[in-house]
Amino acid sequence: MRAGAADAAELRALEAKLRQAQVARDWITFASLLSENLTFTHVDGRVEGNQAYLAGQVKSAALARSERENLCVNVHDNVAVMTGRRINTVDGSLRQYAVMQIWLKTDQVWRLLAQQTGRLG
User: Fold this and answer.
1) What is the tally of structural domains in the chain?
2) Residues 39-91: pLDDT tens digits?
3) Which of 95, 77, 78 has its CA nearest to residue 86?
4) CA–CA dist 53, 31 (Å, integer)
5) pLDDT score for 2
6) Which of 8, 10, 13, 19 reaches 20 to 30 Å from 78, CA-CA?
7) Sign of CA dihedral 91, 11, 70, 77
8) Which of 103, 81, 97, 82 is CA-nearest to residue 37?
9) How close are the terminal C-alpha atoms of the chain, in Å?
10) Is residue 114 within 8 Å of 102, Cβ to Cβ?
């Protein structure tokens, strides 16, 4: 497997782990996958850093399920751009988003550096 392909496979697994931790409300695992310099842009345009985003997630409604579709991973050295759809189930309601994530690899560890989310439908 090429280095880029290996990184892409690792990133897909980390993105799944991030969603699984969010659904399980495992905030220790969830936080470990976020960069200290995280920038998260919400569907309403709000922008939060790492601590504010994490605090908001802890207080948010529980996700019953979270899936990705059409996930595209482009790796460029120590930076990766991931795009695709995310489908969440919250309080029995299906919510669909277009999501772009930027992951950064430092000291051989990938962490989510930025995410922008747009609501679909």
Assistant:
1) 1
2) 999 999 999 999 999 999 999 888 899 999 999 999 999 999 999 999 999 88
3) 95
4) 10
5) 59
6) 19
7) positive
8) 103
9) 38
10) yes
Structure tokens at 22: 């969010």
For residue 5, give both structure tokens: 């392909």
Q: How far is CA 17 from CA 2, 30, 47, 48, 78, in A?
A: 23, 8, 23, 21, 20
Q: 70: phi > 0 → left, psi -120 to 50 → alpha, else beta; which?
A: left
Q: What is the pLDDT of residues 7-35, one digit of tens each?
A: 999 999 999 999 999 999 999 999 999 99
Question: SS3 for 109?
Answer: strand
- Cα dihedral 21, 32, 13, 88 sign: positive
Q: What CATH number is attached to the domain comprising 91? A: 3.10.450.50
Which residue range(s) make up the domain with 26?
3-120
